[in-house]
Amino acid sequence: MVEHSQDGAKPAGETILEVKDLVVQFKTEDGIVTAVDGLSYSLRRGETLGIVGESGSGKSVTNMAVMRLLPEPPAIIPRGQILFKGKDLLKTAKSEMRKFRGNQISMIFQDPMTSLNPFLRISTQLVETLELHQNMGRKAAEAKAIEMLERVGIPGAPRRFKQYPHQFSGGMRQRVMIAMMLLNDPELLIADEPTTALDVTIQAQILDLLKDLQRDFNTGITLITHDLGVVAGMADKIMVMYSGKTMEAASALELFETPAHPYTLGLLRSIPRADATGQRLYSIPGRPPDLNRRPPGCPFAPRCDFVRDVCNERFPDETILSPSHRVYCHATDEVQSKVKAGLIDIPSRREAQEGAAPAAGEGA
Hints:
By secondary structure, the protein is α/β, with parallel strands linked by helices.
């Protein structure tokens, strides 16, 4: 039995999610496409994992697999385990998965403009969550929903509670989505690009809100983004994905201080910086590979400044740099030596955080 403190907080540190050697494929007219290729990671209660990579790297597919929301077919999961508190979700019946989704595992989807049903009042959508998962009576559910809206910073919550989504701004809709996902006190919250459709000021407010709520609920958070700057101030550890594979995984401190993969360097150099006025913003040359025609060896090789002959022949083995830092690259030594010598200009963690999201203001 899990013990709770007097204030109801859950203990920190317990591993709640383990993904082991996950492979996700899709049947297409051109054959089988591998979108996620041998992915492994874990998440503890109260911890934030940032999953970073360009569009098409497999971030969202990975977490849709965790939620068991991928349509099967065309999706196929030929290998791997998704262990939630020791239970393999891939072997869980669909009827049982409905008890996990929205209750113990919740997901904030990318676009707050389309995630809410435009034909239903906010009250209906929030109350339904509590009635479905907690068998709560209407009045009690309404009271709890209004309390949660107030908690996520919706002004005039009792009045706004009865309005429709179109009467809310983008930032407010995202707050409503966060409130909905937290109503059942989930142990795992997956936030898929939660700030993509929002301006940078509101983006900062949403990230601060997630941090505050995580402290209150001790929830494990998986934060999916294409921007290392977004996770700079929030993530405890970061996994960098490319073409369905892990390129590098480390604590946030190690990733910003001693990045070891050329793709990580490219993402870091792409972060806007306040001290780079007048300079052209860096972008990684080329584009991600077509998953139908993934090159043999390292998929990043065609775009890499450190490429060697072996990179085009085989995917690199795992290199363990520390207990919390692993990388898959044939040129790790060269990358790190240049970083340590200051030959590659990359932002510090603080500079990355400031460049991605300035201090929060009003008007969300």
